[in-house]
Amino acid sequence: MSGFSDIAKQAMMQPQESLLEVKSKKNKLYIGIPKEISFQENRVPLTPLSVALLVNNGHDVLLESNAGQAANFSDKDYADQGGLIIYDTKKVYEADIIIKIAPPTMQEIEMMKPGQLLISTLQMATLKAESIQALMAKKITALSFEHLRDEGNILTVVRAMSEIVGATSILIAAEYLSNVFEGKGLMLGGITGVPPTEIVILGAGTVGEYAARTAISLGAEVKVFDPSIYKLRRLQNNIGSRVFTSVVQPIVLEKAITTCDVAIGALRAEDGRSPCIISETTVSKMKRDSVIIDVSIDQGGCFETSEVTNHTHPVFRKYDVIHYCVPNIASRVARTATYALTNIFAPILLDIGDHGGIKNVIWEKSGVRNAVYIYQGQLTNKHIGDRFSIPCKDLDLLIVSHR
């Protein structure tokens, strides 16, 4: 028996020894998380437990004081898990890696140091050439997290945020149908003997699917429109229950929109503007006190009457229809959104440490490579290059030449 335990001990020891070897190859990371200054951005990229995971792996995480406050994570929560709380914004920007939610403003880029790694959103709609040029001048390597892909080639952050936004849009609709928000006084869904509310969803992508799922579970009658039969079929299969689906046919669509209680706009464009498929005339025929939630407003919106609103003044009325057109709906549920983001970012940061730097991670992981738009000061995103007439380099060739 003792012979067996010796063998077992050896077997147990081996992985630990090899782990120690791996640890010695590691690259210590200095990660900075500044407090968001962009309007009503309540999310934070890492939760305290993810900070603990990074610290336990030998990395330093610097957080600007109150960075997580809007998502209800206090400085103490982070400090207890080994995060370093910094009161001077400039000091945070001295880290080797800056990870944040909103794209950096010009004043934030000024604080960045040459050769840093930046992970943030890109937000093509509001992107300015001067920001790109300022990042290039500092030889920054920049990743836009909305272009990160997972092992299944899914846009992982976009997917996570779309799930949140889809489900939340229905809960917002329920609020604005109630008397509390001067709505019609309807309960979203139905009860015995009372017909259910009707919800029309434009778009059968992830937002549309999660909106439909939530609305059906609350008992509403749901109709989903999308130009793509493939997307409609996928939504039908994913939801499991039969739901009314239709390709975009103007007469059928107009009838559905003018008789429904809630219309959700969730049509996305691959790049550029979302298709505006509901005219002002159709909106003017909608039922009084019905609710429009235009999730695609960050790309221009699906309804001709849509105009951007914010979390402070989220709605306006036009033709007696309540319009909710807030671009960053995920910030309403910032804590949930932060949990979703941290699950994506923490493994990437650990990979950067384990692989001895971002260069090796880009080389080995196509999903991360897809998110790079500036590499060591060279623009590598063709869309941005074409838009601002900035010369663009091939990322694969740049990595090979730097190896």
Summed over residues and divided by their number, the pLDDT gives a mean of: 88
CATH architecture of the largest domain: 3-Layer(aba) Sandwich
* The CATH superfamily title of the largest domain: NAD(P)-binding Rossmann-like Domain
* Total discrete domains: 2
The total count of strands amounts to 15
Annotated CATH topology of the largest domain: Rossmann fold
Q: Enumerate the spans where pLDDT stays under 50 for 5 or more consecutive residues.
A: 1-24
Which percent range describes the beta-strand content? Answer: 5-15%
Strand order of the largest sheet: 3-2-1-4-5-6-14-15
Biggest β-sheet strands, sense, barrel: 8 strands, mixed
Q: Tell me the Rg in angstroms.
A: 24 Å
Count of runs of 4 or more consecutive helical residues = 16
Overview of this structure, please?
The protein is α/β, with parallel strands linked by helices. It folds into 2 domains: 25-147 and 333-402, NAD(P)-binding Rossmann-like Domain (Rossmann fold); 165-327, Rossmann fold. The chain contains 16 helices and 15 strands. Strands 3-2-1-4-5-6-14-15 form an 8-stranded mixed β-sheet, sandwiched between helices. A 7-stranded mixed β-sheet has the order 9-8-7-10-11-13-12, sandwiched between helices. Helix 9 (229-239) links the parallel strand 8 and strand 9 (244-246). Helix 2 (48-56) packs parallel to helix 12 and helix 7 (156-177) runs antiparallel to helix 12. The radius of gyration is 24 Å and the shape is globular.
Task: Describe the structure using short key phrases.
alpha/beta, alanine dehydrogenase activity, Ala_DH, 16 helices, Rossmann fold, 15 strands, eight-stranded mixed sheet, AlaDH/PNT_NAD(H)-bd, 403 residues, single chain, 2 domains
